[in-house]
């Protein structure tokens, strides 16, 4: 028999790649007596639960509880320690436990025998799959209920960003944060990285003494800043919701249940900006049932954070680009909070069903905005996102505009678009319009209470829809109509698009200027909200002269807007026109902000402009080190 020790010995003799291939070969012979490709094993076994993005043999064995014991080393940019898995064996005859990994170095695996002693477990890291990473296959029997995988992360961890001191806001201490969705948890924890199952977790985290660690868990045990932190997450969560951040963080309460973690410079600003968070929780709980997670805090990340927000339970991760001083972009908080129901309570069973997470969340987000800030604002926001969807869809293959997609063989990051978000939202709004708000509210509340802490896929949802609405109120919608939303490309003709009276007024003002009936200064803009400004900019003709662009800038100071949404919308108009004054602030923006939603479209506009494509590559060279690995690869797809 080949022991783990022997396998480790081979490590020192051969290059890593050869080691991995030869060992997986040996182990496969060992397990099966014949050579079978890793993929074949995987496809065989994944009968009841199929996740195209995981190697896990879920029908045999599942992790119930995970305990992490990790040291955060900023010098090496490395997490090291062990992940302890409490196993639940579904198949008592199974002999393997397979977890997902990516770019991890596995040091050893130990299992706890019935007598309590730890014994070495044989294991092998399989061949690297470009999308899924490497399966870590451990040979053990169902007698073993606890295993420890000792490992450390590498520079290729796609789920971690290590920031040097200068990349933080305060520029005094380094910063680390994770971003596990969709399949990056495996790059910092060896685990069954699939949203099909849920686990509880706890963690011991050691950091430099002067820094604070936070996780998507109970953070309250760490009153003392001493570099030694304990966390527990008593609610079951899918792997992509495990999150960590370490930095010079401070805390301030907003309400009994809510507060802000941030670097000092953001703390008070964020407390002001997000003061309505408690109201949002109260409204959501009334509509959709109890908030199940205890506290709801927000963590403000450095500006390289690749997303607007990430719904890590109990602690949403938030970009500082929504802190504008006027609370104009707080729909992001409504969005991440909404995930406490749609996504975190009911989770897409695989990334094929992302619309189950994001479409419901966009719908709930808009509903919360409506309750807290009124119809006018909610209509404007829904209308803006509809227009963003249309713009996004114009660059997508038809099959990628259906709600139901098959991502087998595709990276979920590459397939990301606004379709699951906004088309998903439009589908639910359409159902609401057909069945009436009262019935639909009841339906949503029942949905959240009946499936809480479970996974959901499209067909299960359609079944529930049929049981609770379509079947109860016949002749309201046909199955053909529903299938058009789910299976067909594009947006059905009878979609309910929010119209905004405020936007109609904006368009009327713009027309006055374009038809030279009013000079810019005389337009009635003094009461416009950020949303009205965004609509105004989006409605500008694409062929405005440089003189007109200058005039707009002089009167409205768009190139120096501190609101990132406005700045980006304006830059997207002015880049194709080679409008000179945009390029200095644009350079600053690209060097400072790493939010993918902003920087990718900007690089796209630059690349499409023959006079600026070299300039874009030069800026990227300077900015690259400050971007998250996910953002880097998204930009590189555009530029190279
Ligand atoms: N969960 C998402 C972010 C995400 C989705 C990360 C898929 C990785 C894979 C988060 O809730 C989100 O949707 N963020 C948006 C917010 C916006 C639509 C309000 C963002 O980051 O812009
Ligand atoms: Zn979301």
Structural class: alpha+beta
Q: Low-confidence spans: pLDDT under 50, at least 5 residues? A: 1-47
What is the mean predicted local confidence, pLDDT? 93
Count of β-strands = 21
Identify the strand order in the major beta sheet: 5-4-8-2-1-11-13
Q: Count of helices?
A: 20
* Amount of beta strand: 15-25%
Largest sheet: 7 strands, mixed
What fraction, in percent, of the residue positions are helical?
A: 25-40%
Which outline best applies?
globular
Small molecules held by this entry: ligand BES, zinc ion
Report, as a whole number of angstroms, the end-to-end distance.
48 Å
Radius of gyration: 26 Å
What does this entry look like structurally?
Helices cover 39% and strands 19% of the residues. Helix 10 packs across helix 11 (458-470) and helix 18 runs antiparallel to helix 19 (613-623). The chain is of the alpha+beta class and 640 residues long. The two termini are 48 Å apart. It has 20 helices and 21 strands. Residues 335, 339, 358, 361 line the site of zinc ion.
